[in-house]
Design a protein that fits this description.
mainly alpha, 16 helices, elongated, two-stranded antiparallel ribbon, single chain
Length: 243
């Protein structure tokens, strides 16, 4: 099927009526979005409906790696430009991923808290909302980031990237490490080695120390301009200093 984008006015309408639609979020559906062509417009982007519908998780196992891979596969040739469009992800979140969202991000019992929660995970609030918080878009963006890693399969990269949330946050929130392919690849390769052995690099304080050291190095050296081998050497020095 072709990717559908909820019309901007409908996004605003849904956002303003979260309180009125709480029961639909909790136990109902938003089939009127699918069935009413006045709610959306179609693009030329081909997506895999069956793969989107296969995204699921359990209360005790969020299956983040599997869900990221399915989302990335389902969205076909989605560009980074279109992947920043809230209208796409609001449509997907309210339709294909509604059941998944209820399990992955349980809606609070308190109505006021529920409204805040829904606005955060079903819409794309603020600059980081599309990459970090929306129930659908976050899966695609994590896969897109890991898919750039040199010399690693996507599943392998996602497995170590998603293993520890604090480690992931330390990478993503530092532009020096997340925006340069060679730097990001070097970090994930070392994390992958650690994941397959003693997982020592996933210690919160140790990894923060490593990232601080790398950040300092980035302040005096343009890391992204260095060859991959030199970046790896600098990273290994930061790891040794954090021991």
């Amino acid at each position: 099927m072709k990717a559908r984008f909820l019309k901007a006015v409908k996004v605003q309408e849904l956002n303003s009526k979260i309180g009125e639609n709480l029961e639909s979020y909790r136990t109902g559906d938003f089939d009127f979005i699918i069935n009413d062509s006045a709610q959306f417009f179609e693009t030329n982007l081909d997506i895999q409906e069956a793969t989107l519908s296969a995204i699921s998780c359990d209360e005790g196992d969020f299956k983040e790696v599997d869900c990221c891979m399915l989302m990335y596969e389902a969205m076909g040739e989605l560009t980074h430009y279109l992947a920043r469009d809230e209208r796409l992800w609001v449509y997907v979140s309210h339709t294909f991923l509604l059941s998944y969202a209820r399990t992955r991000w349980p809606i609070p019992a308190d109505d006021d808290e529920a409204i805040k929660h829904i606005r955060k995970h079903f819409f794309c609030e603020g600059a980081r909302g599309v990459e970090r918080d929306n129930v659908a878009s976050r899966l695609w963006w994590m896969a897109a980031l890991c898919n750039r890693t040199n010399g690693m399969l996507l599943e392998e990269a996602l497995t170590c990237f998603l293993h520890q949330s604090d480690v992931r946050a330390n990478i993503v929130e530092r532009p020096t490490t997340s925006q340069n392919v060679l730097v990001f690849s070097a970090i994930l390769k070392k994390l992958n080695e650690s994941y397959k052995s003693d997982k020592a690099l996933f210690n919160r304080e140790k990894f923060r120390s490593i990232m601080k050291g790398l950040n300092l190095q980035g302040g005096v050296k343009l890391l992204g301009a260095l060859p991959e081998g030199r970046i790896m050497n600098i990273l290994e020095e930061c790891i040794a200093q954090a021991d």
